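Let us practice reading a record.
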Amino acid sequence: MPKPPRQKSRRQPQPQRSHAASKGADAHNKPRRGEHRPRRKKIELTALQAATVALEDLKALDVSVLDVRHLTTVTDTMVVACGRSDRHVRAIADAVIQKSKQQGHRPIGVEGEKVGEWVLVDLGDVVVHVMLPRAREFYNLDKLWTLSERDQAAAAERA
């Protein structure tokens, strides 16, 4: 025997209480669901800060920040960091890219992401090198992009 169709209930609508009356006097200041709420101001990080935060978050090893303004016009700052494996290097570089994009700094270029031995992320004023320790030891970018005091004195004499 089939069940009879359900009939819609005919409840009388309840009078709505005002939001302020149900929550107290302070509640009228709070916006209701769906109403505009002022957004919190997002603290924007510089490209260098975004990169260093991403490096710290993924536990990059041996991070060096080099100021190269006096050596080249290509970039202002180079960041050199190491990862434990090629997968770690790629993950660190990807985190730098994502964090930079979140802060409004789109990478100009990314090189070496597929191999993972050395990944370069160009953020304009900041260039981030993430590499394996053996590649860092071989290329020795820290020494290449820093002048010793003797070299600085010799350069000053030539000028």
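A brief commentary: The helical segments are 19-23, 47-57, 86-102, 133-139, 141-144, 149-158.
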